[in-house]
Amino acid sequence: MAGSYQFGTQFTAHMVTATWSRAKGWGAPELTERRPIPLDPTAVGLHYGQSVFEGLKAHRQPDGHISIFRPHAHASRMRQSAARLAMPEPPVDLFVEALEMFVRADGDALPDDPSLSLYVRPLLIATESTLALRPADEFLFVVLGFVTKAFFTGGMNPVSVWVSPDFARAMPGGTGAAKYTGNYAPTFAAQTQAAENGCDQVVWLDAVERRWVEELGGMNLFFVHRDRITTPPLTGTLLPGVTRDCLLQLAPGLGYAVAEEPIAIDEWRAGCHDGSIVETLACGTAAIVTPIGAVKTASESWTVGDGTTGPVAKALYDALQAVQQGRAEDPFGWRYPVRNS
């Protein structure tokens, strides 16, 4: 595992799998060496997109053991995603057991370095061989992972963002609230457009009015006003981020009032111009907390605050990392210790 720990490139040695069939239900999870999975060219997951995933992290603790961060919350979200795609919902106990098996097997790959974590990727995919247009009768659940730094290697350095004028991420009644694999490839064209305009990431507006700010790439957004912190409400088109939920719970303890409120792109721009919005930040499992320094549209651009990392983003980042890494109390019970890891 020597190397730069670039996100998603250096995988650990093992994986855990479990199967489901309509006839037999769930099988027990099995630990094996990481290897290609048998998948027929006519597998339903390849043709009709019955595939969902999760992403969570495990962190080395001060006493040397590893704790998985909020596995039950991620299990619940995978169940919700699976239900939306007419897939079998992995039992929470099976999900957590598979994570434990994986971390016990490959925890040694995680160095004693607080800048690194073990990113764990559970996947559920339809494997039945049929081109009949219906939900599959056979599925494979897989857990694999890799050691990584934060997604944005600059850490807390602000990123610049592009407000996509041509693309939408999710529509009402669609799959925006599910961690569905089909939600991601359609974002690549917009991300390419952002890069062509000198920006790091894409801001998604709602698909109906093209006015309401929803997400940043695959991350949730928070806006720091003079008197409170807000984040767009979960309307069914936004992914219910586990990190988002963490910040909503951590912020009051740091002295910040928080609220779930919609914000229009015009309000964001005006708030940055008149100083009523002093910071904007994105959050997610891979990125943790990432400040936004500049916003660009097809017709204009503006700076958020003074363009640097603000005190609220830093405070939330530090507080979350302290809980994840075992350097602070865990009042919400988020750390799940894996002994012998």
TrEMBL record:
**Family matches, as CDD domains:** BCAT_beta_family
Coiled-coil annotation reads: none
Which cofactors, by name?
pyridoxal 5'-phosphate
Q: In which pathway does it act?
A: Amino-acid biosynthesis; L-isoleucine biosynthesis; L-isoleucine from 2-oxobutanoate: step 4/4; Amino-acid biosynthesis; L-valine biosynthesis; L-valine from pyruvate: step 4/4; Amino-acid biosynthesis; L-leucine biosynthesis; L-leucine from 3-methyl-2-oxobutanoate: step 4/4
Q: Which UniProt keywords apply?
A: Amino-acid biosynthesis, Aminotransferase, Branched-chain amino acid biosynthesis, Pyridoxal phosphate, Transferase
Statement: the UniProt record of this protein carries the keyword Transmembrane helix: no
Q: Which family does it belong to?
A: Belongs to the class-IV pyridoxal-phosphate-dependent aminotransferase family.
Name it: Branched-chain-amino-acid aminotransferase
